[in-house]
């Protein structure tokens, strides 16, 4: 089909020097993929993975970099599922008690790993509606007659009311926002190689700026916690240590996960993945 279209457009496929597709095997497969069949006709037509798809893969890998990040995205998806699965709950979140003032335009979005903008949309909407979500969950806990509904709402509220969740939320949103801008521009039909390279460099610069502004992100997260009486604490982690003797009693060894440890284990790890993979 590609050859037929090129022929109709009076384009000589023998002058092709490059081809770019996504990572699907039907397109990029080394045995019978489109890129292989094109190279059989034109050996000089080198294959390059699509820049936009590569960028999405970088985001997907970063979202799996740490168990706490995985847990964070699971919670974001669980919040969407909780409200989206019930029309009354969705209406409660959509309008709340101030319907006479305005109809809210920021609705929760689902986390879809195959859609480039889905993660940013999901996190941005939750960041904008964070307080509304907490209020709605609290109201459901206080007024619902369904035990299962109250239990789910209580569990989600407990996860949201942690400093760690808020910090990761405010840490991820600016990163995904900057990459979303680059991703949109890379999909432009007039995109050329030089501009694409500049866009990727822009993404690298943006992540560097976010890394340098970590303290600012930390301050914003702490201010939100202070405003809504959420404790600014990091969870304790048991330090993994083997028992020396079979009859030795294992003591309570704890490692306080302070700000520096959180920055090194999650924030710096996340930035390093973005920086090296971009």
Structure in words:
There is one protein chain. The chain is mainly α and 278 residues long. The strands form two sheets. It has a two-stranded parallel ribbon with strand order 1-2. A two-stranded antiparallel ribbon has the order 3-4. The longest helix is centred in the middle third of the chain and has 24 residues, at 163-186. It has helices at 2-8, 25-28, 34-41, 51-62, 67-84, 87-95, 118-128, 130-143, 147-160, 163-186, 193-212, 214-227, 259-277, and strands at 18-21, 46-49, 236-238, 254-256. Helix content is 63%, strand content 5%. Mean pLDDT is 83; it is low at 99-103. The protein has one domain (56-189, 201-238, 254-277). Helix 10 packs across helix 12 (214-227). The chain is elongated, with a radius of gyration of 24 Å.
Tell me the radius of gyration.
24 Å
**Beta strand count:** 4
| Proportion of beta-strand residues | 5-15%
Task: Give the overall average pLDDT.
Answer: 83
What class do helices, strands and sheet pairing give?
Answer: mainly alpha
**Count of structural domains:** 1
Compile the SSE list and pairings.
Elements: H1 2-8, E1 18-21, H2 25-28, H3 34-41, E2 46-49, H4 51-62, H5 67-84, H6 87-95, H7 118-128, H8 130-143, H9 147-160, H10 163-186, H11 193-212, H12 214-227, E3 236-238, E4 254-256, H13 259-277
Parallel strand pairs: 1-2
Antiparallel strand pairs: 3-4
Protein name: Zinc finger MYM-type protein 1
Concise summary:
With 278 residues, the chain is mainly alpha-helical. It has helices spanning 2-8, 25-28, 34-41, 51-62, 67-84, 87-95, 118-128, 130-143, 147-160, 163-186, 193-212, 214-227, 259-277, and strands spanning 18-21, 46-49, 236-238, 254-256.
């Amino acid at each position: 089909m590609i050859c037929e279209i090129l022929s109709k457009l009076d384009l000589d496929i023998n002058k092709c020097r490059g081809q770019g597709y996504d990572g699907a095997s039907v397109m990029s497969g080394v045995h019978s993929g489109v890129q292989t069949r094109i190279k059989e006709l034109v050996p000089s037509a080198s294959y390059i993975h699509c820049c936009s798809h590569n960028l999405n893969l970088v985001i997907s890998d970063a979202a799996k970099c740490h168990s706490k990040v995985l847990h964070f995205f699971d919670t974001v998806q669980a919040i969407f599922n909780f409200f989206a699965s019930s029309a009354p709950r969705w209406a409660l979140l959509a309008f709340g008690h101030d319907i006479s003032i305005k109809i809210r335009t920021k609705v929760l979005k689902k986390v879809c790993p195959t859609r480039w903008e889905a993660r940013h949309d999901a996190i941005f909407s939750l960041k904008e509606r964070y307080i509304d979500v907490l209020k709605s969950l609290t109201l459901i806990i206080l007024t619902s007659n369904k035990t299962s509904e109250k239990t789910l709402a209580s569990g989600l509220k407990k996860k949201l009311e942690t400093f760690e969740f808020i910090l990761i939320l405010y840490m991820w949103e600016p990163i995904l926002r900057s990459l979303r801008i680059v991703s949109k521009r890379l999909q432009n039909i007039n995109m050329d190689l030089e501009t694409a390279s500049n866009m990727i460099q822009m993404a690298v610069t943006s992540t560097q700026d976010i890394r340098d502004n970590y303290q600012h992100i930390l301050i914003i997260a702490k201010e939100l916690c202070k405003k809504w009486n959420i404790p600014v604490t990091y969870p304790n982690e048991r330090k993994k240590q083997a028992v020396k003797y079979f009859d030795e009693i294992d003591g309570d060894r704890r490692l306080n996960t302070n700000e520096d440890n959180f920055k090194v284990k999650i924030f710096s790890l996340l930035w390093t993945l973005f920086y090296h993979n971009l």
